[in-house]
Design a protein that fits this description.
Shape: globular
Number of helices: 25
Strand content: under 5%
Helix content: 55-70%
Number of strands: 5
Distance between the termini: 40 Å
Radius of gyration: 25 Å
Length: 580
């Protein structure tokens, strides 16, 4: 840290340099990326393992085909009802432990599935339903971390890198589960191989992962004991709001000095969990203040620190303010001319005491996200559910080959999510692509490419050519993680967890309706027009979603989606820039 020579006493300037590739990989934020990625990998192995084991479970336990189907769907019963309550809890208590337990508890319960299934069919259903319920907190927690840990400059690649864990989880789950289901593993004279080994291995993996997460993960950069000042400034740079976390916690405790100088809060930075800072050390105090501040606009972070070394021993008795050094270009936040500053500060303050549910279900930007989540869920879940049937019934692959061939589309998704993320991040950083342009192009490539690839697949007579188009559809679908995958935290950094929970639930419902619609087409129309009709309907849904996306999508924070009261929501609507 360098103090500018002309800076008044007590005022510190931080000019974070652009990090090198090595410093990025060795940084605490990328350590957090790995932790989140690995947790998502675990929960997806827990999700898909029963898909591989179900047939052998049916044969051994004498289940009917309907009972097998119920076991396969039981996970989603709990998963579909748990996301919104999970986001509500996360908004109030933070995400670290919720995410950790959303991996550890399902992992432990997964190890009980063999015993439960052999005991009774009803108990097997109950265990799978509870696993889904606890796993439903995973993505609300992940989206809670995005505004906190992800720098604006790396967001387009970092978010796809985290979310790609679900594709890797599918790859590992499908690949290893088949081998385990046919294995014989004798331990102390007892054979624990076969289908039970699928649940034992992945369950144990999640249980072993949890202590690593508990020790290494932190709620926010402010809480990390060894993060550098430069990295804190880099994470804060370019974000659109302000946080003085310690102020919030002391105000709730009744500290009159803190409460007398209100400060707007930003996102879900776990304000109540910030560590105490020894103000006798000005450097340490400045470090703590920087960790709890987010710059306005895209300029350098400037901290005004007014400390009295002799009178105070903690950050809770100090006041820190992040000062905007450049005017924000966000049209949704007004013209930045400084008029009526008190009123603007009140309206742009993003309080944590409530969630703007009214705005979520009425604002065109959030409705656009929901429409695209429906289309994305329809495409993704329909592919997941119907791909094996299409490979065997239409393309003529045998069942064993179909199981192997199902892995390659997920490999395409994994590498394309990372590849598109890196490409779009490069275009942003080196070719001055705007974030809006990246989000637009990514969504159009993913939806038109995936839905168009399915339509072309249905018109191919050669099964290998058709399968190639199916792989192409999955490959292009990976671009969506740089579009819709980033959009929730773009527009609602304060409540991205809650907003994404609604979108994810809508996508899951689409995943339930999609296979039903496919089955209806197949039964109503002879081959190949049944499948062609289903894929053409998918393409139509993608086009409708993209019309909304082209009209309403924005990469700027939307005040209505970040204001916690109806009064703030209405005032924002009446004072929004006419250009928007």
């Amino acid at each position: 840290m360098n103090s500018h020579p002309s800076t008044p006493r007590g005022k510190l300037e931080f000019n974070p340099p652009a990090p090198s590739v090595w410093s990025r990989l060795a940084s605490k934020r990328w350590e957090m990326v790995w932790l989140l990625f690995s947790g998502i990998v675990v929960v997806y192995t827990l999700r898909v393992n029963v898909s591989v084991a179900a047939q052998k479970m049916r044969d051994e336990l004498n289940w009917s085909e309907n009972q097998k189907g119920l076991v396969l769907s039981a996970f989603y019963w709990g998963y579909s009802v748990g996301q919104i309550p999970a986001s509500y809890i996360i908004q109030r208590v933070g995400a670290k432990w919720i995410f950790g337990w959303s991996v550890a508890i399902p992992s432990f319960l997964t190890m009980l599935v063999p015993v439960a299934s052999r005991h009774s069919f009803g108990l097997a259903l109950f265990i799978r339903c509870i696993i889904g319920f606890f796993e439903s907190a995973t993505f609300p927690a992940v989206f809670h971390f995005f505004p906190v840990w992800v720098p604006q400059q790396e967001k387009t690649f970092m978010i796809p890198a985290i979310v790609s864990g679900m594709y890797m989880g599918n790859i590992i789950g499908f690949s290893i589960s088949g081998v385990l289901a046919d294995s014989s593993i004798v331990v102390a004279g007892t054979d624990i191989g076969g289908w039970p080994a699928v649940f034992y291995l992945f369950g144990a993996l999640g249980v072993a992962w949890f202590p690593y997460w508990a020790y290494m993960a932190y709620e926010s950069p402010a809480d990390h004991p060894s993060i550098t000042m430069e990295e804190l400034a880099y994470i804060a740079q370019g974000k659109q709001s302000l946080l003085t976390a310690r102020h919030q916690s002391t105000a709730r405790r009744g500290d009159s000095r803190a409460a007398a100088s209100p400060s707007p809060d930003f996102s879900s930075y776990a304000a109540a969990h910030s560590p105490m800072i020894d103000a006798a050390n000005p450097m340490q105090a400045a470090h703590g203040a920087l960790a709890r501040s987010v710059s306005l606009g895209e300029g350098n972070v400037v901290l005004n620190a007014d400390w009295d070394v002799s009178a105070t021993r903690s950050l809770s008795t100090q006041r820190y303010q992040a000062v905007q050094t450049t005017v924000s270009s966000n049209p949704l936040l007004g013209d930045g001319d400084g008029a009526d500053e008190d009123d603007d500060a009140e309206e742009e303050g993003l309080a944590q005491d409530g969630t703007p549910w009214l705005a979520f279900f009425t604002h065109p930007v959030s409705l656009t996200l929901f429409v695209n989540s429906w289309a994305g869920g329809w495409i993704g879940f329909t592919l997941l559910s119907e791909m094996p049937s299409y490979l065997t019934d239409v393309l003529g692959f045998d069942l064993t080959s179909a199981g192997i061939l199902c892995v390659f589309p997920y490999m395409a998704l994994f590498f394309s999510a990372l590849g598109f993320g890196a490409l779009f991040q490069y275009l942003q950083n080196d070719h001055d692509w705007s974030t809006d342009r990246v989000r637009q192009v990514a969504e159009f490539v993913s939806f038109l490419g995936a839905a168009g690839g399915l339509v072309l697949c249905s018109f191919m007579s050669d099964k290998y050519v058709a399968y190639t188009f199916m792989i192409l559809a999955q490959l292009l679908l990976g671009a969506s993680q740089s579009g819709l995958g980033c959009a929730y935290s773009d527009v609602a950094p304060n409540y991205s967890s809650a907003l994404n929970s609604i979108g994810n639930t809508i996508g899951a419902v689409a995943g339930i309706v999609g296979p039903i619609a496919v089955a209806s087409f197949i039964s109503s129309y002879p081959d190949p027009w049944g499948w062609r009709g289903a894929f053409l309907l998918t393409f139509l849904l993608a086009v409708v979603a993209l019309v909304f996306w082209a009209k309403f999508q924005t990469s700027f924070p939307v005040p209505e989606l970040n204001s916690s009261t109806v009064r703030q929501y209405r005032r924002h609507r009446t004072r929004r820039s006419p250009a928007v």
